[in-house]
Amino acid sequence: MGGIVYGGKFEKLMNELSSPENVAATAKKFRDLESQYGPYSFGKFVKLTTPQAGEYTNWEADAGGIPEPIQNRLTEIISTNFRSASPMPMMLKVGDNIDTTHELHVRNFVYNGQLYIGLHMLCPNSDLT
Description:
alpha+beta; three-stranded mixed beta sheet; 6 helices
């Protein structure tokens, strides 16, 4: 999963869904999907929550290429946040790493007076793969 693949439209869509204006509605939809389809795991609801689901035809293979510990960490962060009574907005940034590994950096930060969960996903460097 190169950063170029999911760094554009997908990143923008996820940031819109998790923005301060939309995070409560997204969290409600997330909880409704869990009620209908069972507990969340990383990437499980992408095709159910994105209006352009057809653009993610390789999603399962691409998401499956992310190491399990990173998938588990993303599952933990996203599900805990969306299940909470007061979900926080999240900001996703996807890009190429300097080597051929995946990395995830998670950090809380304040932007325009609002506390966010920051997710910085680094994917294998496309120049090296």
